[in-house]
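Try this one yourself first.
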């Protein structure tokens, strides 16, 4: 049986994640995951693709959801922490996520100045409004906050081990899991278990984890964010995309690593929860 070995929440899109011992899985993903987003002054979202220094910020939301702290991952970077009272009543402003129009609740001038200084570019911080009704597409559509697509991103430890083995054969050093920014990391102590097989998560179509059920939405097509060193906040390259392209190229283009799921039944998740596959598919959408 596979187990959850890590749960990671990313309150601010593009910023660092925080590992949690347990979390509430809401219809739109882990509680507070990608609930905030940094934008330019016109409302267009910012990501590590153009602003890798976002990785240097570790956000934390209080359990009651009323306060947000933005803390630098490296105190020597020159930016002190900032704690904000989260507002859900401020005026909405238009935001643009991959060309799609949504609304965001602006979190004020202090947050805007903090991110503008960090990124050396005029920025605003917005929160998902309570009335946010975005439905991400996929085999199983589902609600999503400001995530790139579906609510939950899952990767197995075996998949990363296989990638690092192939990279070593090409003379490249191994990479940590944080390059792929998953929400749930799976592993198995039994070498004969399904989760011990690299990329077996690609074939899962329905999962039960703890109190929750998840439905397969799509395979995760990787982008230039995987080139960003999450500790340094700088873009490295060309790995892992170069190696992934040798064996994980999608028939529709791009390279694949990990799987996206929608939430079918919300509930509590904990590290150590067993992961049961209720339905499988043989078609992964990869080129033969």
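Now uncover the answer:
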């Amino acid at each position: 049986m596979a187990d959850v070995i890590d749960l990671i929440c990313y309150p601010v899109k593009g910023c660092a994640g925080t590992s949690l011992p347990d979390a509430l899985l809401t219809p739109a993903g882990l509680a507070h995951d990608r609930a905030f987003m940094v934008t330019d002054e016109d409302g267009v979202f910012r990501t590590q693709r153009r602003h890798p220094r976002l990785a240097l910020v570790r956000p934390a939301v209080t359990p009651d959801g009323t306060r947000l702290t933005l803390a630098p991952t490296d105190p020597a970077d020159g930016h002190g922490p900032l704690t904000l009272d989260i507002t859900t009543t401020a005026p909405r402003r238009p935001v643009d996520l991959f060309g799609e129009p949504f609304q965001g609740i602006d979190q004020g001038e202090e947050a805007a100045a903090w991110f503008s200084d960090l990124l050396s570019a005029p920025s605003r911080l917005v929160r998902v409004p309570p009335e946010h009704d975005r439905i991400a597409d996929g085999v199983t559509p589902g609600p999503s906050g400001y995530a790139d697509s579906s609510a939950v991103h899952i990767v197995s430890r075996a998949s990363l081990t296989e990638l690092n083995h192939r990279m070593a054969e090409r003379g490249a050093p191994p990479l940590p899991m944080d390059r792929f920014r998953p929400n749930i990391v799976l592993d198995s102590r039994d070498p004969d278990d399904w989760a011990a097989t690299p990329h077996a998560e690609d074939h899962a179509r329905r999962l039960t984890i703890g109190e929750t059920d998840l439905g397969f939405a799509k395979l995760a097509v990787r982008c230039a964010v995987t080139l960003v060193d999450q500790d340094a906040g700088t873009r490295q390259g060309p790995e892992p995309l170069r190696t992934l392209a040798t064996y994980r190229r999608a028939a529709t283009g791009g390279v694949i690593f990990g799987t996206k799921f929608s939430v079918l039944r919300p509930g509590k998740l904990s590290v150590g929860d067993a992961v049961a596959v209720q339905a499988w598919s043989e078609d992964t959408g990869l080129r033969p």
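Discussion: The two ends are 29 Å apart (CA to CA). The CA atoms of residues 139 and 217 lie 5 Å apart.
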